[in-house]
Amino acid sequence: MRALVATIIVLCACHQEPKHAIPTIYELPNGFTGWVTVEYAVPAAAALPEERGARVIRIPPDARLQTSSPQWLGIVDNRFYFVDGTGRRTPIDDREATPDAAPNEAGKSHDHPVVLRFETGDMTDATGRHVFERFYVGLGPAGEPPGWR
Question: Which residues pair with 132 in a beta bridge?
């Protein structure tokens, strides 16, 4: 009995809560405008790298990225950047993508690039289950998102 109790104590001490959300750095090609889609939990795709405790999502020129990493939900510090050919990051204004942003901001034009209409999705079609997020980057208006694929 003592061995069983000791085993339970060790297992409980070693148990860690799963990560639900960590900060995410989104890197977009310099000057990109349009809709971005990130699809999660795609077995054949590469995992997302981490940098100083944040996940890094490097968006390719076609603005569609698949990763084997899971989608982690929660309110976190997401940061959006344009990245030039030397790797230098320039912040993109993302305040219009926050939950407290005015709902009509996505329909407006802006005088500088902004992130608009950040949304997550989970759908099943003939090819299986797809967990994704998408957002618009540009001067706006964002318009309607394209089909998830």
Answer: 39, 121
What is the Cα–Cα distance from 147 to 103, expressed in whole angstroms? Answer: 21
3-state secondary structure of 95: helix
> What are the tokens at 19?
């990560």
pLDDT in tens, 100-136: 566 667 888 888 899 988 888 888 888 888 899 999 9
DSSP state of 112: S
Nearest to 85 by CA among 31, 139, 48: 31
pTM over 0.85: no
Residues 6+ apart with CB under 8 A from 139: 33, 109, 110, 111, 112, 113, 114
How confident is the model over 59-91, as pLDDT tens digits? Answer: 999 999 999 999 887 767 889 999 999 999 999
